[in-house]
Design goal:
The structure is a homodimer.
Chain A: H1 3-11, H2 46-49, E1 53-57, E2 62-64, E3 72-78, E4 81-86, E5 92-98, E6 103-104, E7 115-118, E8 122-128, H3 129-138, H4 140-166, H5 169-184, E9 197-200, H6 205-212, H7 216-228, E10 232-233, E11 239-242, H8 245-252
Antiparallel strand pairs in A: 1-8, 2-7, 3-6, 3-8, 4-5, 4-7, 9-11, 10-11
Helix pairs in contact in A: 5-8, 6-7
The first copy, chain A, binds a DNA duplex through α7.
DNA sequence: CGTTCACTTGATCGGTGTCAAGCCGGGTGG
DNA sequence: CCACCCGGCTTGACACCGATCAAGTGAACG
């Protein structure tokens, strides 16, 4: 497919990539204040602007493959990505999910340990690893931001470790729905039904399953059970309506 | 028990703690070159030496509780600790294991999200959070070390996420034994049996189970199966001998 | 209109959890 | 010194959750 071509582009010849977007300015950036570059003021952020390229990737595209040399560091401007690892026999586990303002790529590792794939269409602000590294050396406050976010990621990953190791299928799916809800905060409240919440779920059943350490069938069954219990509704493809947030919270068996 | 007393000591009156060890020097430190403080040269490490205290904790002691305010940052000098999280009903998941040269405590979080308990007797090099923070601000290279290790932790945690979500009980236990082996590198090779490897396992069955997302019984059964298959032997309590490393590797179904 | 892909639903099987009993080694006290 | 206890571990019987295999539905798209 296109993967290797795109990767080559990213490393060597960005000007040739069909996915390369026209040069943008940090002033207009949707994540200027929420991504790691918030550490730099408008004056110093130009050092990043000078080496960045905006790129677009279609849903399903694998941006980085497990075992690739990691030459890319990027900030997510738009869309959702999944990080996953696979076993020799093909079993797959999603180990991280990225959305706007999250960053992608380990600056220190020689090669990536994860595959990064687009769940939706994705726009990235890309930096060549070495040049980003150079800016990092000049600006400890940028490194501080990376550290802050790494600790947050670690914390969130450990929380999913708790879910993966200890929770039942029902609890896992309920936890996932709550996570999705926290992440989106889409609230469509009407007078008569103040707990009606509709959210967009970009993930396929298979992806949710791979995230939760379940099979696609078990995940689907839990969705069905929640629907017949009127805890959720599925108004249309890719939409989930939470009909009863409290029940969902109870089913998720939150940590204290 | 003693937990709250010790914690109070750490925060307010270190000189009164029965666990406080006599003042030590960084020059003699067993992890001077392998822990985060390797970032500082002998001259600057005194800034840390000035605010550090060495402390000893008995096996089983809980140093930090989930929900505690996080006033402690520490480096492990000796022994093994476990980080765990619990659900409301008591189900517990170990989310991290620390040994010599690892560090304990999130400098940025207002409160700890994990419980930290001693698996063995433990010696820590402790710092008050705020004062460590101040040193950190003056020395970006120290922050760099923290970032490096946070990324490594994240990577290792994701690897366990793959195991928790996708591996069978047999594969999990095999993976755990290999991890223990990698960590220790105890090798007792004789002429006739070059693959005989004896290692010390400080963990109880229950702890291994809580780490792998299994029950203690299932874990025990896997140990028994490995023993009857002559993959491992249990020469004495707390000792595990690997009789056949290759088989163990095959059983663990390594990621590629 | 047929194909494809995501999803749902059903039937069955097996792995792992649960409950329970028993074993083993170490420590304590009579 | 032995009897007893206790905690950690092992082993057995059984139930059940979730995986597996398989068929069917529905929507999107050419």
């Amino acid at each position: 497919m296109f993967e290797s071509k795109v990767l080559a582009d990213l490393q060597g010849m960005p000007q040739l990539s069909p996915f390369l977007l026209p040069r943008a300015h940090c002033a207009d950036c949707p994540v200027r204040k929420s991504s790691v570059c918030c550490a730099l003021d408008d004056k110093h952020v130009t050092e990043l602007a000078d080496i960045m390229t905006h790129r677009h990737f279609a849903a399903g595209h694998a941006i980085v493959h497990q075992e690739d040399t990691s030459e890319l560091f990027a900030i997510v401007l738009e869309g959702t990505l999944k990080l996953s690892r696979v076993l020799e026999d093909g079993r797959q586990q999603i180990v991280g999910l990225l959305s706007a303002s999250d960053s992608l790529g380990n600056i220190f590792a020689r090669k990536s340990h994860d595959t990064a794939e687009c769940v939706t269409d994705v726009t990235l602000c890309c930096f060549p690893r070495k040049r980003f590294d150079a800016v990092l050396k000049r600006h400890p406050e940028l490194q501080h931001q990376l550290l802050l976010r790494a600790m947050e990621d670690l914390d969130e990953t450990r929380q999913w470790m708790l879910a993966l190791g200890q929770k039942s299928a029902e609890e896992k799916v309920a936890s996932f729905l709550l996570w999705l809800w926290d992440k989106q905060q889409y609230r469509v409240a009407t007078e008569q039904d103040r707990d009606a919440l509709i959210m967009t779920c970009p993930f396929k059943r298979r992806e949710i399953a791979e995230f939760l350490g379940l099979t696609l069938e078990t995940t689907s069954r839990q969705f069905s059970r929640f629907r017949t219990k009127h805890v959720i509704a599925l108004p249309s493809h890719g939409q989930i309506e939470i009909k009863n947030l409290d029940t969902l919270r109870r089913l998720a068996e939150q940590e204290r």
